[in-house]
Amino acid sequence: MAEAVAEFLERIASREKIDERRLMALGLISYLKDKKRKLMKERLEILRRYRVSSAGELEEKIGRGEVEEHPAWEDLITVENLDAEIREISNELSALQKTLQNSP
Q: Taking the model in full, what pTM does it have?
């Protein structure tokens, strides 16, 4: 499989007249952006259920008893984990994009 991927990479890079490493970086950026979009959609769907815009607001609603603790606590943990993963992907994207900007 690795050989086939390498052949595709070489062929596409040649056709597009782009360095193979740059093409791989651009593909990785595209992949990470798509993953981030999906995570953000999942996060938004959970927050909409509770009519809040952040994990903090959801936690406040739980604390005030405005929503049932179950499944709200589980959803809160999920949102917090999604927030962390989104931040990590954002940092990776930023670093990759800076690398591309600084390379010839």
A: 0.89
